[in-house]
Amino acid sequence: MSHDHDHDGHHHPVAKSPLELRTEALEALLAAKGLVSAEAIDAVVSYYEHDVGPQNGARVVARAWSDPAYRTRLLADGTAAVQELGFTGFELNTLVVVENTPLVHNVIVCTLCSCYPWPVLGLPPTWYKSAPYRARVVAEPRAVLREFGLELAPEVELRVWDSTAEVRYLVLPERPARTDGWAEEELARLVVRDSMIGTAKAMSP
Amino acid sequence: MTAPRLAAVDRALALVAPLPRSNGELVFDEPWQGRALGLGIVALDEAGVSLVEFSRFLADAVGSHGYDPAEPAAGAYYAAWLDALEHALRTRGVELP
């Protein structure tokens, strides 16, 4: 992924690939001619974000909810655990899975660009790449989550994880109540994309 | 609206240059590929290029792009996609570098 960076206090933008630059240039040119708008393209891409990509991550979460041994492996080595389900890729070289509990809530961001575990979550949503989200979720995470409709109790510890070129994060949301005995396929349908970024909880049945 | 349009694109290309899939799901090796797909769908619509017409440009581009074993399949496909998109748009008088 381009313009990635490490987070040892230093960000090192990486050159974009020629094809990425070409795509951006073509979009800019066609937008200038009035043929396309970012909003119209976003609407198409949004389809993938919501309906194509995140189900991979949802399968991972549903497996972790159903299989305690898998959950342990997932939290110990996210990369290896998602590989068990067939999900691999450069962006998953180091995948760290952080678990939400009644007293800890995790949220992920990439403060300088848009590092994102997209092999399991699909393409990043537009807001994930927006400057306000990237800046504000670090400075005032509770306020940002409130705007997403997620109100956290004061006693809940909030942890913000800054993704990098080397390390991507995935949130393991809490399993919803009243789902005892549910099959993995049923559970996966409760796992919305934003719950794996940390800006929402999994859906209730 | 978006889903039916994508389904139409998927169907139109299925026999000539199908969208890259893995286990039934669309795959993108890198995010620009998804952006290129979205860009193409919107631009073709606006420029009045039919999917049947575009599928011919795409089949030609996929054929001429060649196969590089070192290049991921989706990367090669969407590189050809950009070639075909630019070709199609030029036929509608869109000036491109």
CATH level 4 superfamily of chain A: Nitrile hydratase alpha /Thiocyanate hydrolase gamma
Work out the count of structural domains of chain A: 1
Distance between the amino and carboxyl termini of chain A: 36 Å
Helical stretch count of chain A?
11
Average per-residue pLDDT of chain A, rounded, comes to 87
**Structural classification of chain B:** mainly alpha
Computed over alpha carbons, the radius of gyration of chain A is: 17 Å
* Major β-sheet strand ordering of chain B: 1-2
Task: List key phrases describing it.
heterodimer; A: 205 residues; mainly alpha; Nitrile Hydratase, Chain A; two-stranded parallel ribbon; 11 helices; 45% helix; globular; B: 97 residues; two-stranded antiparallel sheet; 4 helices; 4% strand
What does this molecule look like?
The complex is a heterodimer of chains A (205) and B (97). Chain A is mainly alpha-helical. Chain A has one domain (18-197): Nitrile Hydratase, Chain A (Alpha-Beta Complex), CATH 3.90.330.10. In chain A, 45% of the residues lie in helices and 11% in strands. Chain A has 11 helices and 4 strands. Chain A has helices at residues 18-32, 38-51, 54-66, 68-76, 78-84, 118-121, 126-129, 131-139, 141-147, 184-188, 193-197, and strands at 95-99, 104-109, 157-162, 168-172. Chain A has a two-stranded parallel sheet with strand order 1-4. Chain B has 97 residues and is mostly helical. Chain B has one domain (2-90). A two-stranded antiparallel ribbon of chain B has the order 1-2. In chain B, helix 2 (31-47) packs parallel to helix 4 and helix 3 (51-65) packs across helix 4 (73-90). Chains A and B meet through helix 1 and helix 2 of A and helix 1, strand 2, helix 2 and helix 4 of B.
